[in-house]
Design goal:
Blueprint: E1 2-5, E2 8-13, E3 24-29, H1 40-47, E4 51-56, H2 72-85, E5 91-96, H3 98-109, E6 114-120, H4 130-138, H5 140-151, H6 154-157, H7 168-177, H8 183-193, H9 197-203, E7 208-213, H10 221-229, E8 234-239, H11 246-249, H12 251-262
Parallel strand pairs: 3-4, 3-5, 5-6, 6-7, 7-8
Antiparallel strand pairs: 1-2, 2-4
Helix pairs in contact: 1-12, 2-3, 3-9, 4-5, 4-8, 5-7
Length: about 260
């Protein structure tokens, strides 16, 4: 659906169903250089199982206009402003990669607005190599290619897919190319500068779920486990052989774990 927020046209995927702000709202937050298409195998699944889904494109990403946000704190404020604009009193936040940092910050800063939080392939901090930062500014296509390659596990590189008809590498490259040219640089800079993950996790009292990838080369498993350990009430699910792009590579496993978590009273 199309939505106006602070004078900017925002695109939000709702899984093909009309959005109901009074329902069980699940907000899906994409990672660096990504957009709502990260969640193409989750948004419709949850929307057709009784959830009110919001999978927004952050400004300058996907089909949203506007200037990309440059800090995790600004992204967290933006998520809450989005909920305000849609009259959503409380929601479950689901983040992937950078989206985990945004979900942590939003949950800690606005605890009354978040019912529970799910973190997929994330960590408390996501430092970025200076070479990749420079590349995202000076050689965007190359940066996208490197991130797509590193983001997927061995299965994707062998063109062996859990979903028929999918090419994870090709899809990932195309997805990232849909964004504003400045989006990846802004996202990577935001991740690199964010230092609040540990404090945010320590402040969170809501139920949490961590879905981690065994072969994650972007936010390695050991850092995901550190994130889980820092949370007060947490379930942890490690998906064997998976790479960083869990929502695409292993959607059945991700959806099953998320659904069980979101359906808890």
């Amino acid at each position: 659906m199309k939505h106006q927020l602070d004078g900017t046209d925002i695109h939000i995927a709702t899984g093909g169903r009309s959005f109901d702000a009074t329902g069980n709202v699940v907000v899906m937050l994409h990672g660096s250089g990504q957009n709502h298409l990260t969640w193409v195998l989750q948004s419709r699944y949850f929307a057709y199982r009784g959830f009110a889904v919001l999978a927004p494109d952050f400004p300058g990403h996907g089909l949203s206009s506007g200037t990309p946000l440059t800090s995790i704190e600004d992204m967290a404020r933006w998520v809450i402003a989005l909920l305000d604009s849609l009259d959503v009193p409380q929601a479950t936040l689901v983040g992937h990669s950078q989206g985990c940092l945004v979900a942590l910050e939003a949950t800690a800063t606005y605890p009354d607005r978040v019912k529970r939080v799910a973190l997929i392939a994330g960590a408390l901090a996501i430092p970025v190599n200076q070479q990749l930062l420079d590349m995202s500014d000076q050689a965007l296509a190359k940066a996208i290619g490197i991130m797509t390659s590193w983001g997927h596990g061995a299965m994707a590189h062998m063109h062996d897919n859990t979903q028929p008809g999918h090419s994870f590498i090709g899809y990932g490259n195309r997805l990232m190319a849909l964004n504003d040219n400045d989006a990846l640089r802004a996202d990577l800079t935001a991740c690199n500068n964010y230092q609040g993950g540990a404090a945010a996790a320590a402040a969170i009292k809501q139920p949490a779920l961590c879905i981690l990838a065994e072969k994650d080369r972007m936010t390695p498993l050991k850092f995901g486990r550190e994130m889980a350990t820092a949370l007060a009430t947490v379930e942890t699910n490690v998906i064997a052989a998976a790479g960083h792009m869990l929502p695409a590579e292993y959607p059945a496993e991700v959806n099953a774990a998320l659904r069980a978590f979101c359906e808890q009273s």
